[in-house]
Specification:
By secondary structure, the chain is mainly α. The protein has 5 helices and no strands. Belongs to the tetraspanin (TM4SF) family. Keywords: Glycoprotein, Membrane, Transmembrane, Transmembrane helix.
Length: about 130
């Protein structure tokens, strides 16, 4: 059920690819498709709706070159990005979890030290005033 909602939202996001003000999303899709060797959310035909033609971004190409996304489907990655990234996350769940916990700990320590410093400054102002 969650998979269907996630895929639907990702497919909506494809329509923002390459548009003004969405350079982050465009770069994210390009990096994902290049690094994970995949194309589109469920397959490369997801891009046909975005471009209204038989075309994919150049990041979908087996061998990257300018306008390679205009060539035949035989030169594009076939794997679906959603499933590929999902499998990668499942295989690396422990590492992702540890990274998340470490990041949270650093944030909590930073807040604690900031609050301690604030209290010391307020206390010093009270005694010195």
């Amino acid at each position: 059920m969650i998979d269907k909602y996630a895929q639907r939202d990702l497919k909506k996001g494809l329509h923002l690819y390459g548009t003004d003000g969405n350079i982050g999303l465009t770069n994210a899709w390009s990096i994902i498709q290049t690094d994970f060797r995949c194309c589109g959310v469920s397959n490369y035909t997801d891009w046909f709706e975005v471009y209204n033609t038989t075309r994919v971004p150049d990041s979908c190409c087996l061998e990257f070159s300018e306008n390679c996304g205009l060539h035949s489907p035989g030169t594009w990655w076939k794997a679906p990005c959603y499933e590929t990234v999902k499998v990668w996350l499942q295989e690396n769940l422990l590492a992702v979890g540890i990274f998340g916990l470490c990041t949270a700990m650093v944030q909590i320590l930073g807040l604690t030290f900031a609050m301690t410093m604030y209290c010391q400054v307020v206390k010093a102002d009270t005694y010195c005033a």
